[in-house]
């Protein structure tokens, strides 16, 4: 097990991690968005067709839809704050409450509480980012620790320790947001003034409307509403062709299915997408897209921060507008002055406004063209979401040839709500590995009796171009995506190359390699491991639960032992350990988890450590203590009969050449 500080860093570069968290926050709002979209469509139907169902009248339904839409900014604040708090291991309840207070507080200070929250779309996105960032910084200050968590109930201690930071961050975050609002206000005024000064033609303003609103959708803001706040679009209510306004032209020929010609994106997904998530979202969004409500697709797929779909999302409406303008300019289609609600489905709206089928045929042609444009982008996006494609991509970039069975880890199988985030993160990890150098470092194992090096544990490291070396903070993501066996096979191949180079110098140490349970349960992977390392001085470190998870894993372990390879039980003393399992473990070595040595200074911790050591020695296991970082810990472990130790007290993980030099000097 890798216990180095580098390995404990579980964060991605801040921008990438932030985008993942924001996408997850938007996706979490999907149930609310479904309700809001359904209510909006129903309200428009009541208004357009003067429906009445007992006590339900148009005014009641419209008011309900208005209230639900108005909740979106506040719910977005809650969702982003919650997901940011989870990502940074913060108290979620306190973080969410503070973000809400800051959001509502700045609203009150600006004197606009009588206006609906939707007038502050950007504030809902920025407020939790500012609040969480400040709270993280303030909580690191020493004066915030009022009470110790061990001295009272954890929740009470957390509440007390957040008392002063809560107030301080409220003041700082509210002030920061006021400054941001001032800057945005000046910027918005500047944009409005600039657009007015340019005296854009209605056509240019229509193009600007489409481009800017779609870019705003991309960052999670309601593009049309925000654009209308920035730019006076009343001129777009004029006629572009007889009886057809600029806005209606946009709705009929560029916005079928809502923003990004969402109906065509939905069809493209159903035709070429292979990942389950995209297809489910497309089917769920279909009835709303027919009525030109696109939020379910934008926030559920999501389009938000989705760089693979940004280009067609922005460009397809522009392409449709250009073609439609050229066709209408020929005079082949005339409009009769009738109106159609914005929720009227494609084909029906054009028929109502023209009384004929020519406009509907034009819509059909544009729909087909839009689908064709979207298809290659959707295919690439779907491939990035596919576990099999990710696996093949990683295997290819690491030089692991041959057909590898797609095997989904238990964590992946039981975390379906995180499939989208997992796949996006996995693609980023693969790109990160490709751009840098994946390598193995070797941490010495020290014999307790004479402090001589008796072997190494092979540990993953990533070397950046600037010389930095970091631990495998990406490993959990790959495991959740079912890609653990690809990494394991690469480690086995790389370890063999290192052993071959050491053999040439007369150096023959034992090297321990970690294997994931998924690898153990894949007979094909076991075949390849045996072909690679059979007969070598190698030991495989396996977590204890692999012995009890499935017969396939137990069979994989049996085959490794039958070939003469040693088996070590890693992280013994953590969640899955039991006295009963010691009887059944078919292993040579027990590695005591670092968490045990960390509590050995307490009476109870010492008693537990001593008892485990005595029992393992009685059962004739070789015993190794992990995470030994001080001389006192080493002396204690040695006195309790530990055969070997591993930890920073003696040496960190070293590259192959320095590891050989260390072993020679301490051999």
TrEMBL record:
Keywords: Cell membrane, Membrane, Sugar transport, Transferase, Transmembrane, Transmembrane helix, Transport
Entry coiled-coil feature ranges: none
Classification via InterPro entries: Cyclic-di-GMP_PDE-like, EAL_dom, EAL_sf, PTS_EIIC, PTS_EIIC_3
Pfam families: EAL, PTS_EIIC
Keyword Transmembrane: yes
GO annotation terms (biological process): phosphoenolpyruvate-dependent sugar phosphotransferase system
Residue ranges of domain EAL in the record: 421-667
Residues that span the membrane, as ranges: 67-85, 92-112, 118-138, 159-184, 252-273, 285-305, 311-335, 356-377
Single GO term (MF): cyclic-guanylate-specific phosphodiesterase activity
Localization: Cell membrane
Keyword Glycosyltransferase part of the UniProt annotation: no
Bilayer topology annotation: Multi-pass membrane protein
Protein name as catalogued: Lactose/cellobiose-specific phosphotransferase system IIC component
Domain (PTS EIIC type-3): residue spans on this chain: 1-377
A single Gene Ontology CC term: plasma membrane
Higher taxonomy: Bacteria, Pseudomonadati, Pseudomonadota, Betaproteobacteria, Burkholderiales
């Amino acid at each position: 097990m890798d216990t180095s500080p580098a390995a404990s860093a579980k964060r991605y570069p801040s921008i990438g991690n932030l985008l993942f968290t924001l996408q997850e926050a938007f996706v979490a709002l999907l149930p609310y968005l479904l309700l809001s979209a359904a209510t909006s469509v129903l309200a428009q139907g009541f208004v357009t067709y003067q429906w009445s169902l007992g006590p339900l009248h148009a005014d009641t339904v419209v008011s309900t839809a208005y209230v639900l839409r108005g909740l979106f900014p506040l719910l977005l604040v809650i969702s982003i704050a919650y997901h940011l708090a989870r990502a940074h291991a913060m108290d979620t309840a306190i973080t969410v409450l503070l973000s809400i207070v800051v959001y509502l507080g700045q609203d009150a200070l600006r004197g606009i509480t009588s206006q609906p929250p939707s007038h502050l779309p950007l504030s809902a996105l920025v407020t939790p980012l500012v609040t969480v960032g400040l709270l993280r910084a303030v909580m690191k200050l020493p004066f915030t620790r009022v009470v110790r968590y061990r001295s009272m109930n954890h929740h009470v201690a957390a509440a007390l320790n957040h008392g002063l930071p809560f107030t301080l961050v409220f003041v700082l975050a509210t002030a920061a947001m006021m400054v941001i609002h001032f800057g945005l206000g000046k910027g918005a005024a500047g944009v409005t003034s600039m657009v007015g000064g340019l005296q854009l033609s209605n056509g240019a303003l229509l193009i600007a409307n489409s481009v800017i609103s779609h870019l705003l959708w991309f960052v999670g803001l309601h593009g049309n509403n925000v654009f209308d706040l920035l730019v006076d679009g009343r001129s777009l209510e004029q006629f572009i062709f007889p009886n057809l306004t600029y806005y209606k032209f946009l709705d009929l020929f560029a916005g079928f299915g809502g923003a990004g010609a969402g109906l065509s994106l939905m069809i493209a997904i159903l035709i070429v997408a292979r990942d389950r998530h995209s297809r489910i979202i497309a089917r769920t969004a279909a009835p709303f897209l027919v009525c030109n409500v696109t939020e379910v697709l934008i926030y559920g797929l999501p389009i938000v921060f989705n760089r693979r779909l940004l280009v067609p999302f922005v460009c397809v409406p522009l392409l449709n507008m250009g073609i439609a303008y050229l066709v209408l300019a020929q005079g082949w289609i005339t409009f009769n002055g009738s109106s159609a609600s914005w929720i009227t489905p494609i084909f029906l709206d054009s028929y109502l406004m023209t009384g004929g089928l020519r406009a509907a045929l034009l819509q059909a042609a544009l729909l087909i063209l839009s689908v064709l444009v979207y298809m290659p982008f959707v295919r690439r996006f779907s491939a990035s979401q596919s576990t099999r494609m990710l696996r093949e991509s990683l295997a290819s970039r690491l030089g692991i040839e041959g057909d590898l069975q797609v095997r989904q880890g238990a964590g992946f199988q039981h975390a379906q709500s995180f499939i989208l985030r997992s796949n996006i993160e996995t693609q980023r990890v693969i790109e990160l590995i490709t751009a840098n150098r994946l390598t193995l470092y070797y941490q010495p194992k020290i014999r307790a009796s004479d402090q001589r090096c008796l072997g190494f544990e092979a540990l993953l490291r990533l070397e950046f171009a600037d010389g930095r070396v970091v631990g495998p903070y990406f490993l959990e993501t790959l495991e959740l995506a079912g890609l653990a066996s690809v990494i394991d096979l690469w480690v086995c191949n790389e370890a063999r190359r290192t052993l071959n180079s050491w053999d040439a110098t007369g150096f023959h140490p034992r090297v321990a390699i970690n294997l994931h349970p998924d690898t153990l349960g894949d007979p094909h992977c076991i075949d390849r491991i045996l072909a690679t390392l059979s007969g070598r001085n190698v030991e495989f470190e396996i977590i204890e639960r692999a012995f009890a998870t499935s017969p396939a894993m137990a069979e994989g372990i049996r085959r490794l032992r039958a070939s003469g390879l040693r088996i070590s039980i890693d992280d013994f003393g953590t969640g899955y350990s039991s006295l009963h399992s010691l009887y059944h473990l078919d292993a040579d070595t027990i590695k005591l988890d670092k968490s045990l040595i960390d509590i050995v200074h307490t009476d109870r911790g010492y008693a537990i450590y001593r008892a485990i050591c005595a029992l393992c020695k009685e059962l004739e296991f070789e015993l190794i203590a992990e995470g030994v970082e001080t001389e006192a810990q080493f002396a204690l472990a040695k006195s309790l009969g530990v055969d070997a130790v591993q930890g920073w007290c003696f040496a960190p993980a070293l590259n192959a050449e320095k590891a050989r030099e260390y072993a020679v000097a301490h051999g």
